[in-house]
Amino acid sequence: MNKKIFVSFAFLIGLIYVYDNFFTKSMIIGTYVSNGNGIDGPNKNDTLILLENYTYESQSWGKGKYTLKNSGKGTIIDIQYDYEFGKGGYQMSIERDFYVKPKLVFDFDQDYYFKKIK
Fold first, then answer.
1. Cα(33)–Cα(47) distance, rounded to whole angstroms?
2. Rounded to an integer, what distance in angstroms lies between the CA atom of residue 74 and that of residue 85?
3. What pLDDT digit, counting tens, does each position of 20-52 carry?
4. Kind of pairing between the strands at 74-83 and 103-107
5. Whole-angstrom distance between the N-terminal and C-terminal Cα of the chain?
6. Where are the alpha helices (DSSP H) in the chain?
7. DSSP run (H or E) holding 11
8. Backbone phi and psi for residue 54, each to the nearest 5 degrees, phi listed first
9. Cα–Cα dist 98/19, whole Å
10. Distance set, CA 71 to CA 23, 80, 107, 110, 112 (Å)
11. Distance between alpha carbon 17 and the CA centroid of its chain, in Å?
């Protein structure tokens, strides 16, 4: 009986981890708003719109392309943009707390992220 409980509990923990950290394109497309300022990144209340064709529109970075990557830690979004010195990029992890909309984390230390609003 104890083995069944342990296996069930481990399965539940694994399922929660996958749900909170792995995303498909259809799960992340939409409009996001920033809650803070990042170095060479978004300002507070900047918007980021992720479109279905792997392009985005942003007040900080203009228009560009994005890619999604999956790793053992979860899904990563990589934003590519043009600026005065050439090309640049910004990489953010995608997370969510259980039953909450996804957020794109751009500064872990200061808890700055883009929160999905639609």
1. 5
2. 31
3. 666 777 778 899 999 877 666 777 888 999 999
4. unpaired
5. 45
6. 2-21, 25-28
7. helix 2-21
8. 60, 30
9. 8
10. 11, 19, 19, 23, 22
11. 15
* Cβ contact 44:37 at 8 Å: yes
DSSP 8-state assignment for residue 47: E
Share of the chain above pLDDT 90, in %: 19
Query: Smallest Cα–Cα separation from 27: which of 62, 77, 80, 79?
Result: 77
Tell me, what amino acid is at 59? Q
Helix (H) or strand (E) holding 70: strand 62-71
Give the per-residue pLDDT at 30. Answer: 93
**Residue at token pair 């923990």:** 13
111 phi-psi bin (left φ>0, alpha ψ -120 to 50, beta other): left
* Residue 110 tokens, joined: 């200061």
Cα(56)–Cα(65) distance, integer angstroms: 6
C-alpha pair distances (Å), 50 with each of 7, 42, 71, 86: 38, 15, 21, 22
Angle (nearest 5°) at CA 61 between 60 and 66: 130
Residue 96 CA to residue 118 CA, distance in Å, equals 15
